[in-house]
Design goal:
five-stranded parallel β-sheet; elongated; binds calcium ion
Length: about 220
Amino acid sequence: MRLLVVEDEKKVASFIKKGLEEEGYAVDLVSDGKTGLTMGLDGVHDLIILDLNLPRIDGLSVLQKLRKRKVATPVLLLTVRAAIEDKVIGLDTGADDYLTKPFAFQELLARVRALLRRRAEAESPLLQVADLTLDPATRLVSRGDEKIELTTKEFALLAYFMRNPGRVLTRTMIAEHVWDYDFDPMTNVIDVYVNYLRKKIDAGGEAKLIHTVRGVGYVMKVE
Ligand code: CA
């Protein structure tokens, strides 16, 4: 995963770059809008973190120009407190999310992960396990001919299971992929959600697809 950070405040920029690199991302850092635009137009990045207030070309103009040139790279805008209008305009212009300064690194990381996950889901093909199908693009889920309605969380959980058929998923793995950084792994939330999901996908006497691995977690498989 390669990220582009466009931020002119040296302290903020190095804090973001250092933190993201520690998380395993490759980070290109530039400090003005003009260079940011040039690099963004290359389309090689998986995500752009874009400050609004930048020298040479401001962040909003960079975003406008990227979208005008059909660059669909997800953009996370960095704004300063109280500039609500900036946020609204930013989202209208095609930003995918925004974060208000000052922010905790964990919050930035959570947003980055969510945006990258969303992008990956949108790009991947139809998932199928037995007669259960999940379409990441349209978010339609069905078992046989039966359509299944899921909440956002249930959908994310099912997608994670379906991307890893036959693999035992521990509660920690599930928490890291489906819940946010502040999730408390000591609660039974995961078990509760797995049960919701089971009731929806295994209803009506079909072969069960989600199996409990006692003391470890869960596995999706056809028996
Ligand atoms: Ca700035």
